[in-house]
Amino acid sequence: MSDAASIDSMPVVPEKVEKGTSLTRDAWLRLQKNKLAMICLWVFAAIAALCFIGPYFKYIPGLREVLPDPNATHLSERSQLPNATYLLGSDHLGRDIFSRVVHGGRVSLMVGLLATLVSITIGVVYGAISGYASGRTDAVMMRIVDILYSMPFMIMVIILTTMFGNQLWLLFVAIGAVEWVTMARIVRGQIMSLKKQEFVEAAVSLGYSDARIIFRHLIPNTIGPVIVYTTLTVPSVMLLEAVLSYLGLGVQPPDSSWGTLIKEGADRMQSDPALLVFPAIFFSATLFCLNFLGDGLRDAFDPKSSKD
Fold first, then answer.
1. How many helices and strands (H and E) does the chain possess?
2. The total number of structural domains that make up the chain
3. The domain that contains 107 carries what CATH number?
4. How far apart are CA 137 and CA 303, in angstroms?
5. Residue 172 lies in a domain
6. How do residues 82-119 score in pLDDT, each as one tens digit?
7. Residue 254: cis peptide before it, omega within 30 degrees of 0
8. Which contacts (CB < 8 Å, 24+ apart) does range 37-43 have?
9. From residue 219, how far is each of 125, 132, 144, 255, 280 by CA, in Å?
10. Exposed / middle / buried, residue 135 (Cβ in 10 Å: 0-12, 13-18, 19+)
11. Cα separation of 102 and 49, whole Å?
12. Residue 59 maps to a domain
């Protein structure tokens, strides 16, 4: 009897609670196993950090000469080979190529990121409303998307930039406004499958409004495909900006981007190939990194890969 009493008086040790996880955390752990994607992530981060932080080196005395003014001309030092003063050499006007590549990269990355943000915002909202509404509303909204698909994007952007001028902010809006249709289709398909789930039926039974269900419950559950497509949209937008700049419809002097630098290098390729090679290396490395990172994210967010 005493043994039973002693057993009852023993403190109850709670069982160890297993820490929960989430889709984003699982995807990050799977992404870390993809060595190529992680290398591309760090390389892209290094390029972006150099482009965005590098122009502020001019305020640091020890680094002031590393990135001089990209528009400063020194005619007596034209077409210099890479040396201690000009890390990547100088162009036909004596401007530092490395400094121009860094400053041009900031513009190209800004166009890529901000224009993608515009397109992702429009596409996610449009696709979510279309997929949740269904019926005639969905049919009309998707026919509008089909019409936009049939129109040549490049010509649309050229018309917009020609009508409203070559302003940098307009370039963000113009490219973003024609790149959202694919995202709208992706999100629409995700929403149409998610709205049949139990948590949506529970939200409807609680009397939540359609706007709250869409923006608070459905859109957050499409974050995986949205992140993947975003990493694949940024390089395509940057490539479109480079083409526009190459045609003279993008960034205008004295500003520069990788597209304008490649155009200048192509015009002087035979006499000064460094003007083309170095901007093309930075541009190609960024595109490769973003594409491989997008492939890695697609595999990481794939539910089938959780069995690995």
1. 13, 0
2. 1
3. 1.10.3720.10
4. 31
5. yes
6. 877 777 878 888 888 888 888 888 888 888 888 888 88
7. yes
8. 37/292, 37/293, 37/295, 37/296, 37/297, 37/300, 38/296, 40/288, 40/289, 40/290, 40/292, 40/293, 40/296, 41/289, 41/293, 41/296, 43/285, 43/289
9. 8, 11, 21, 38, 37
10. exposed
11. 10
12. yes
Burial tier of 304 (Cβ tally within 10 Å: 0-12, 13-18, 19+)? exposed
What is the span of the domain harbouring residue 137? 47-307
In a domain, 188, yes or no: yes
Neighbours of 32 (CB within 10 A): 13
Q: Give 176's contacts (C-beta < 8 A, 6+ positions apart).
A: 114, 115, 116, 117, 118, 119, 122, 237
Residue with tokens 């930075």: 282
**Closest CA relative to residue 227, chosen from 117, 62, 66, 70:** 117
pTM of the predicted model as reported, rounded to 2 decimal places: 0.75
Tell me 88's DSSP state: T
* Location of structure tokens 């990172």: 293
Please spell the DSSP secondary structure of 265-282, one letter per residue: HHHTTTT-THHHHHHHHH
Q: How many residues does the chain have?
A: 308
Q: Under a CB-based contact definition with an 8 Å cutoff, are residues 244 and 259 in contact?
A: yes
What digits encode the pLDDT tens for the residues 4-23? 555 455 555 555 555 656 66
- The reply to whether 5 falls in a domain is no
8 A C-beta contact, residue 145 and residue 184: yes
